[in-house]
Design brief:
Shape: elongated
Structural class: mainly beta
Largest sheet: 7 strands, mixed
Radius of gyration: 14 Å
Number of strands: 11
Strand content: over 45%
C-alpha cells in the first residue's frame, strides 16, 4: 500500500528547531513535486514550502529564511527543517506529494497526503 508517513513533530520552545520527515512507502518509483502544508486551529490549510521534481523550491513569506525543504530520493523521504520557531508556527503539518509507483506492475502517479504531525511552539 502506498502512503506517506510523517514524523518529527513535537513541543519546542520559541527559537527552537525541529525537523519533520515524510517517508513514502510501498512500491515507490519516485517522488515528483511535493510540499509541506500546515493547518492551525480555525484556519485554512496553507502551503509552507514546496519542492519540484527539478529541485526548485519556494516558501511562504512567513517562513522564508527559517524553514528549509529537502529530499533524499534514495530513501523516498522529504524533510522540513524548521529553525527559529515562533508561536505562530504552531499547527498540524502535512506533507503532500505526487508519487510514482507500481500498481499491478504498471507505473502510475497519484497525489497523496500524510496523516499530519503536530508542532507546538511554546512561548
Amino acid at each position: 500500500q502506498v502512503q506517506l508517513v510523517e514524523s518529527g513533530g513535537g513541543l519546542v520552545q520559541v527559537g527552537g528547531s525541529l525537523r519533520l520527515s515524510c517517508a513514502a512507502s510501498g512500491r515507490i518509483i519516485g517522488i515528483n513535486g511535493m510540499g509541506w502544508y500546515r493547518q492551525a486551529p480555525g484556519k485554512q490549510r496553507e502551503l509552507v514550502a514546496a519542492s519540484s521534481s527539478g529541485g526548485s523550491t519556494n516558501y511562504a513569506d512567513s517562513v522564508k529564511g527559517r524553514f528549509t525543504i529537502s529530499r533524499d530520493n534514495a530513501k523516498n523521504t522529504v524533510y522540513l527543517q524548521m529553525n527559529s520557531l515562533k508561536p505562530e508556527d504552531t499547527a498540524v503539518y502535512f506533507c503532500n506529494a505526487d508519487l510514482t509507483y507500481f500498481r499491478n506492475s504498471i507505473p502510475r502517479t497519484d497525489n497523496y497526503w500524510g496523516q499530519g504531525t503536530q508542532v507546538t511552539v511554546s512561548s
